[in-house]
Design a protein that fits this description.
- The chain contains twelve helices and two strands; from the N terminus they run H-H-H-H-E-E-H-H-H-H-H-H-H-H.
- The chain has helices spanning 2-25, 32-48, 56-83, 90-112, 140-162, 164-174, 176-181, 186-213, 222-235, 240-263, 273-287, 297-300; strands at 130-133, 136-139.
- Strands 1-2 form a two-stranded antiparallel ribbon.
- Strand 1 (130-133) and strand 2 (136-139) form a beta hairpin.
- The longest helix has 28 residues, at 56-83.
- The chain starts with a helix and ends with a helix.
């Protein structure tokens, strides 16, 4: 129950960027998992290098900030050079973003090899300690990831519903041509959306790898992509409310599945966790393709 709730909250942050870029621009960004992976790698690089001084905790915080900004910049460049020229052609966008994911994978292989660098908060940090919640031992790093995820989720909701830029995003999602006639610069808005999406993916990559995965690798992009796709399909493409609901459903389902297998005496089955998301995605596509809340319901309200 506890781990299902925490996993759901963290997964919501992972899928939020995917939902945002699709809801605003209609882009199915299959490179979303690569920004997650890149965030984890950059956190490792900037944190492990000692670039930001001797204080390990301060260096980790600065590494997190720089890694997120770096991934946001990479997201803007890749959007402008590769996605923007083919936007509007869904098949071309998916092909381009898959190619981007493979390119990032190969770059990580060239730069870091096939090893799996450990990604964690500094030794001795209180975040590596545990506390008891209803009799369940939970690391403070998991609690931090959960709280940050929910705060960012709520902040984005406020941003979309209350700010001028957020209202412009909703307008573009409803009718791009009319929004352009009203003077909204869709090119800049799509670019901003991509930057926010990439930064959210990077944050998810850092918090999930430091609290759950504990390591990164060049093939890390596939599982978060599968999770993101499952959550947004389950909740409804473009629906922020559906993303949160879908994330908690997947979080609970994964942990329940693993718990049942362990209770049946099947040890070492953590690697089967990802099967739950893939099976759930297939079932939803067969039974309710629009998801729980339908297509872009949040943008239409």
């Amino acid at each position: 129950m506890i781990y299902g709730t925490i996993s759901g909250g963290v997964y919501a942050l992972l899928a939020l960027g995917f939902t945002l870029i699709y809801g605003v621009s209609g882009v199915v960004n299959l490179a979303h998992g690569s920004f997650y992976m890149l965030g984890a790698y950059m956190f490792f690089v900037f944190g492990a290098s000692g670039f930001f001084g001797a204080d390990p905790m301060l260096a980790s915080i600065l590494a997190l900030i720089v890694a997120v900004i770096f991934v946001g910049a990479v997201g803007s460049i890749t959007y402008r050079l590769t996605i923007h020229p083919v936007i509007g052609n869904e098949i071309a966008v998916m092909v381009v973003t898959v190619c981007l994911a493979i390119i990032f994978q190969q770059l990580m292989l060239l730069g870091f090899g096939a090893s799996f660098p450990r990604v964690s908060w500094p030794k001795g940090s209180f975040l590596l300690e545990s506390t008891s919640i209803w009799g369940v031992s939970v690391e403070y790093s998991l609690i931090l990831a959960f709280v940050v995820s929910l705060v960012l989720f709520a902040s984005l909701l406020v941003f979309i519903t209350k700010t001028k830029i957020g209202k412009a995003m909703r307008a573009v999602s409803q009718d791009r041509e009319v929004a352009m006639l009203m003077g909204i610069n869709t090119k800049r808005l799509y670019m901003l959306t991509m930057i926010i999406s990439a930064m959210l993916a990077a944050l998810a990559g850092i918090f999930i790898t430091t609290s759950i995965e504990k390591s990164t690798g060049p093939w890390l992009w596939f599982r978060p992509l599968a999770l993101s796709l499952t959550i947004v399909i389950l909740g409804g493409l473009g629906s922020i409310k559906g993303t949160l609901t879908g994330a908690f459903i997947i979080g609970f389902a994964e942990n329940a599945f693993i718990f049942i297998l362990v209770e049946l005496g099947w040890g070492g089955v953590e690697f089967l966790r990802g099967v739950v998301a893939l099976v759930a995605m297939v079932i939803v596509l067969l039974l309710r393709p629009k998801g729980l809340f339908g297509k872009r319901i949040e943008m239409e309200e």
